[in-house]
Design goal:
Helices cover about 50% and strands about 10% of the residues. Helix 1 packs parallel to helix 2. The longest helix has 16 residues. The radius of gyration is 16 Å and the shape is globular. The mean pLDDT is about 90.
């Protein structure tokens, strides 16, 4: 599948399923070029236009520096240090954490 096809698949799911939050985990991405930067920005922008909260997680310093040097801006996109932090931003909790916070019956 091409990057264009993947972008269309993600955006179709956002629209069809009413997805309100998307995490783009790029923690395995050690380097980035202008093509990948454009794909990432396009996907993030399209998701936002469809009403989804877009969070890029796991960006390493080298990727952040390269994006900055390329003049790429992830406007309107939140960032998180890792996927777990991104899930917390979307309000997701681990089942054990949610159970601990639930009111206890007396």
């Amino acid at each position: 599948m091409t990057h264009r096809g993947e972008n269309e698949l993600v955006t179709a799911r956002i629209a069809d399923e009413g997805i309100r939050g998307v995490i783009l985990d790029i923690s395995r991405l050690e380097i980035i070029d202008s093509f990948v930067a454009r794909v990432l920005m396009r996907l993030a922008a399209t998701g936002r236009l469809l009403g989804a909260r877009m969070i890029v997680a796991g960006m390493c310093p080298a990727v952040a520096i390269t994006l900055s040097e390329l003049g790429s801006r992830l406007t309107g996109v939140q960032t998180a240090l890792n996927a777990e932090q991104a899930m917390e931003l979307l309000g997701w909790r681990r089942p054990t954490e949610a159970a601990e916070e639930a009111p206890r019956a007396s």
